[in-house]
Every structure is written in C-alpha cells, then in structure tokens.
C-alpha cells in the first residue's frame, strides 16, 4: 500500500481553519483501524455567531463583485479540486472507510456542481424584464437578491460532495456560508474549502464550524438567513419546524428506503452486477442506495444466483488505491445499527441469501454486503432505513405489483427500474413515487445530472438541490415596477367606472393575442 498524500501535518493545518476559539477537541477515528485519525477543534455557539457576523461582511462585497468575478473564482476552484484529487481521495477514504472508486464519485460530483453553478448562475439569476399586466401603463423587472448568509448542515456519509452541492450554488448566487460539518468528514470539507479559498473565495465567506448538534447546529439554525440540511428525516423535521417559526426558507434532503424493480426481460447477470453496485456502493451508506429489490419471478432464479456469486467474489478492503470493490462501514454506531437490523430480521424468520457477517479480520467495522429474503412487515429492515450493508429481495409477478410495492414506503427519494424495454421503463418510471428514477442504473444517472433538480417526495424531503431550483433557493426575487405615465390608473369611484370597460377590453385582447 502506498503512503497517503495526506499527513498529520495536513490534518492539523486544515483543522486550524475551523472557527473555534476554545482549546477543546473531538477525536475522530479512521474506519480502517478504528484508531484516532486526528483531533477536530470544537466550536461553541459564540463561535457560530462570530462566523456569521464575519461571513455577513464578506458576503456584501462578494454579492457586489458580480457574476463574472464569481464565475472566474469558481472555475479556478474547479481546476484546483482536480489538481488536488489524490490528496482529496486519500482524505475521503481515511475519514469514511469507503473505496477509492466511491471516493472518486464524490470528487467527480463536486467538480460537476462547481462547473454547473459557475456557468449557470448568471443565466438563471440575472435581473430581467417581465411583461406587465398593464402594457404601456407600467413596466416591470424582476431582480434576484442573494439571501445573505446560508447555514449548511451536512452528514458524515458523502461529506465532500454534499457540501459542494449546497455551498457552491450559494456562493455562485452571491451568498456567504457557515457550514456545520459532521465530526466525521470535516477534514474532507476543509480540504475542499481550501481549494475555493486558494482560488479567491474570501476565507470569511465560507466558514466551517464543528461540534455537538445541540449547541453548534442549533446556534446555526437560530441565525441563518436560509438553511440547507442533509441528514435524517427526524432531524430534518426539527429543522424545518424551526425554519418555519423563523419564517426563513430551508431545503431538506432526507432519508430513503429506495426500491429497485428488476423486470422479466433483463439479462440476469448484468442486472445482478448493477444491483450489487446500486445497493452496496459506499456500503449502502448513501441516501440514494437501493435497500429494496423487487425481482420478477420469471428471472428471480438466475438473478439471485448471479447476485450471490457477484457479492461472494467481491473484494472488501481499506487500502488507499483502487484495490477493493467494497469498503468499511463508517463507524461503530453504523455497525451496531446494521447488526441490530440483521439480528431482528433473522430472529423473525428472514433468510440470509449472501453476506450477513461482521468482518473484524479486515477492519473493526467491516461488514459483508448482505441480501435477505423472506422479509416481512414486522421486521425493522422492512420499512425503516438501514443505511448500510443490507438489502432485501422480494418477488413480484408483474410490473404493476412491483410499482405498488415500491410505492408502499413512506419515503420517496430514489428508485430504479431494470428492463430491456424503453417503453416499459418509461411507464414504470412515471408511476414510481420518488424524486429521481434511474433506468438500468441504481442512482448515478440522476446523481450526476447536476443540471436537474435532486430531492425527495413524501418523507424524503422538501425543496430541491442542483439545477436551476438549486440556485433559486439562495435568492429573494424582487419585482420592481414603474408606471409609464401614458395612462392614468383609476383612483376614484368615477375613474373606476370610466376605465373598467377599457380594462375589460384589455384583458380580452391580451387573451386573444396569447400574451400572458
Ligand atoms: P443526522 O440527521 O443525525 O445528522 C445530520 C447532520 O445534522 C449532522 O451534522 C448532525 O450533527 C446535524 N444535526 C443533528 N441534529 C441537529 C439539530 N437539532 N440542529 C442542527 N443540526 C443537527 O443524520 P446522519 O445519521 O448523520 O446521516 C444519515 C442520514 O442522512 C440518512 O437518513 C440518510 O438517508 C440521510 N442523507 C440524505 C441525503 C439526501 O440527499 N437526501 C444525503 C445523505 C444522507
């Protein structure tokens, strides 16, 4: 195994960028051994307030700098991320326990959203004239004003790419950011941020704080002008309630129990290979991972055989290179959750088709990719998000049965359908209740489509990141109207009586001319 490009000196230098005035630190372990990777400074509520005050000052200048300057800086950051990719890949792997391939997906996503937002911001957010309902009497323009300083809260699982998906459009729109990083993943975020600072983003404009949610997270949502939250549905609901009370906006990217339909016209080996990746990339610790597999009974036999064979042959490992197919679970808490879901299911009669074992021989939190059959509604794994290492396989007799089963979840984040027929794929995709549907892939088609909105329906969230919707979150549209003076609008009863017939004629003419 080659030596990492990341080193304790780098961890210490990155940690210095956390806004934290005290000397208290949090020990953050690395999943490959469970030993301490680095000491993360702990911020206080006062540090959060200071970070906001400084970000506000920086934001005023950043907003005035204009689209062209922001685009220049963000495109430079794009190039720096690519130049520094080996170091970033090492950090992601060391912090999360995921494989090089899955870490690479994070980097690729981060540069994609950076490029998209740098290039799209002006087109989406520039001020523009809109047609007045009173042509010749008044003219109107819409301006999009940055909301101010955004609070961004991210989880541990895809720390770098999820940070980019919220922070970069906020910066492109002219906002500042105070980000509460999860303890695990903070180094990757700080290294990503460094690329943006070196590219020309003012250091105070994107502040990172760390520490307990009850103090640091709460302080952040108390003062932010808008909140972007990515995490569990339970926490998202609390943050949405608080944002509602403060009458600020929020985007809530929450949990999922994502379903995959394998129809009866697939090649079973290809479908099984794609299913293995869709369910167990990042060891299933990805919001859009597949946890429910609905297979048509006509192909279930060969599909199951191919899936078992594929997962048995897969290599688990933690090296800093492209040497392993699957990595580690991220923490002791994740291992405990996966083990609890498995034990509960097996105790109630589920059968382990493949996997099912903790693998301390590889690393403390390694767990085999596990597929269960015979899962019933009384088991935790049936409807609750496991968020790691376990997928359940069910048989279906028709496309309709599969759609009904997939839609029976309270979640609606991502779904997938595998079929050789484009027509069937479209019909099933149209009927699935999810914020994204992937055809013949688990999640990467939609995840990589950074120009398209990403988010959940039902209990999987509110609001959208990515695409135009992802940028529009960060601005207040303001309408500025001016009367031309060519015609006096009515003010008195008599003037209304005189001009009402004219306004009726105007409404009729506008409809005939198809003018909105
Ligand atoms: P979590 O809700 O426990 O924590 C997420 C973040 O919120 C952490 O940084 C945490 O410290 C912070 N937090 C917790 N309570 C808070 C509070 N009251 N105020 C402010 N901040 C608070 O989630 P988790 O277990 O870390 O992450 C896993 C969950 O995230 C899964 O449910 C997964 O599906 C979801 N997720 C969703 C997406 C998406 O895009 N929809 C992406 C990744 C993960």
TrEMBL record:
Top-level taxon of the source organism: Bacteria
Positions of the Aldehyde dehydrogenase domain: 20-478
InterPro entries in the cross-refs: Ald_DH/histidinol_DH (IPR016161), Ald_DH_C (IPR016163), Ald_DH_CS_GLU (IPR029510), Ald_DH_N (IPR016162), Aldehyde_DH_dom (IPR015590), Aldehyde_DH_Superfamily (IPR050740)
Any one GO molecular function term: succinate-semialdehyde dehydrogenase (NAD+) activity
Span list, region Disordered: 22-42
Stated family: Belongs to the aldehyde dehydrogenase family.
PANTHER family for this protein: CYTOPLASMIC ALDEHYDE DEHYDROGENASE (EUROFUNG), SUCCINATE-SEMIALDEHYDE DEHYDROGENASE, MITOCHONDRIAL
Protein name in UniProt: Acyl-CoA reductase-like NAD-dependent aldehyde dehydrogenase
Lineage, uppermost ranks: Bacteria, Bacillati, Actinomycetota, Actinomycetes, Micrococcales
């Amino acid at each position: 195994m080659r030596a990492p490009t990341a080193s304790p000196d780098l961890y210490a230098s990155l940690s210095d960028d956390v806004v934290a005035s005290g000397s208290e630190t949090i020990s953050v372990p690395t999943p490959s051994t469970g030993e301490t990777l680095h000491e993360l400074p702990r911020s206080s509520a006062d540090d959060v307030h200071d970070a906001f005050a400084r970000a506000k000052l920086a934001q005023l200048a950043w907003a005035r700098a204009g689209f062209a300057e922001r685009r220049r800086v963000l495109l430079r950051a794009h190039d720096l991320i690519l130049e520094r990719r080996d170091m970033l890949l090492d950090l992601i792997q060391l912090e999360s326990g995921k494989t090089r391939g899955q870490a690479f997906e994070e980097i690729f996503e981060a540069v994609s959203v950076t490029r998209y937002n740098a290039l799209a911001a002006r087109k989406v957010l520039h001020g523009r004239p809109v047609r007045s309902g009173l042509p010749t009497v008044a003219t109107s323009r819409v301006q999009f004003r940055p909301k101010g300083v955004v609070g961004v809260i991210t989880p541990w699982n895809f720390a770098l790419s999820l940070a980019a998906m919220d922070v970069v459009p906020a910066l492109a729109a002219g906002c500042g950011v105070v980000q509460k990083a999860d303890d695990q993943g903070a180094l990757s975020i700080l290294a990503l941020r460094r690329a943006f600072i070196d590219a020309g983003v003012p250091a105070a404009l994107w502040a990172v704080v760390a520490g307990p949610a009850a103090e640091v997270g709460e302080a952040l949502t108390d003062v932010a002008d808008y909140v972007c939250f990515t995490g569990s549905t339970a926490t998202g609901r609390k943050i949405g309630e608080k944002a509602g009370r403060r009458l600020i906006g929020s985007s809530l990217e929450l949990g999922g129990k994502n379903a995959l339909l394998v129809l009866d016209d697939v090649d079973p080996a290809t479908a099984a290979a794609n299913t293995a990746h869709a369910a167990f990339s990042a060891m299933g610790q990805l919001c859009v991972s597949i946890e429910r597999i609905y297979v048509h009974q006509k192909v279930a036999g060969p599909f199951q055989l191919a899936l078992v064979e594929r997962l048995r042959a897969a290599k688990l490992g933690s090296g800093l290179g492209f040497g392993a197919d699957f990595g580690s679970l991220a923490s002791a808490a994740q291992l405990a959750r996966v083990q609890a879901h498995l034990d509960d299911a097996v105790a109630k009669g589920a059968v382990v088709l493949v996997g099912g074992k903790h693998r301390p021989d590889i690393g403390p939190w390694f767990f085999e990719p596990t597929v269960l059959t015979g899962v019933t509604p009384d088991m935790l794994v049936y409807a609750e998000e496991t968020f790691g290492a376990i997928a359940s396989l069910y048989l279906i007799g028709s496309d309709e049965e599969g759609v009904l089963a997939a839609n029976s979840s309270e979640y609606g984040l991502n779904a997938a359908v595998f079929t050789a027929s484009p027509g069937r794929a479209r019909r099933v995709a149209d009927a699935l209740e999810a914020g994204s549907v992937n055809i013949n892939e688990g999640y990467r088609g939609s995840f990589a489509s950074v120009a398209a909105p990403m988010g959940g329906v039902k209990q999987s969230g509110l609001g959208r990141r990515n695409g135009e919707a992802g940028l529009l979150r960060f601005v207040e549209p303001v309408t500025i109207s001016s009367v031309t003076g060519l015609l006096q609008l009515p003010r008195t009863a008599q003037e209304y009586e005189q001009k009402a017939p004219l306004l009726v004629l105007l409404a009729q003419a506008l409809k005939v001319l198809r003018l909105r």
